[in-house]
């Protein structure tokens, strides 16, 4: 009975939408994974350099959704001596 209501034209668009949704999900997952990884690296750099990380700063790092910004902070953290230097504009 279901075969009577099958339409190849509609099925093609449904499948295309499904594939696009999967691709978007994969890309979002990669971005979230990268963001999470860079945030952890930044925290590790600060800790290894003996720079105190106030809870508010830790929250700012963990909540940041921009991996490029996190990488910029991590680069600064490699040569900074204070947390303020890391976040200086």
Nutshell version of this structure?
The chain has 89 residues and is mostly helical.
Report on this model:
The protein has 89 residues and is mainly α. It has one domain. 74% of the residues lie in helices and 0% in strands. α1 packs parallel to α3. The chain starts with 7 loop residues before the first helix and ends with a helix. The mean pLDDT is 88.
The percent of residues in helical segments reads: over 70%
Mean pLDDT: 88
Straight-line N-to-C gap = 66 Å
Number of helices: 4
- Measured by DSSP, the beta-strand proportion falls in under 5%
Coarse structural class: mainly alpha
Structural key phrases:
89 residues, mainly alpha
Please render the helix and strand layout as text.
Layout: H1 8-48, H2 55-63, H3 67-77, H4 83-87
Helix pairs in contact: 1-3
């Amino acid at each position: 009975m279901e075969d009577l209501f099958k339409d190849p034209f509609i099925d093609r668009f449904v499948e295309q939408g499904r594939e696009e949704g999967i691709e978007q999900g994969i890309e979002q997952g990669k971005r979230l994974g990268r963001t999470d990884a860079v945030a952890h690296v930044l925290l590790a750099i600060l800790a290894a350099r003996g720079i105190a990380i106030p809870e508010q700063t830790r929250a700012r790092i963990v909540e940041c959704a921009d991996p490029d910004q996190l990488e910029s902070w991590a680069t600064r953290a490699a040569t900074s001596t204070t947390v303020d230097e890391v976040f200086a504009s």
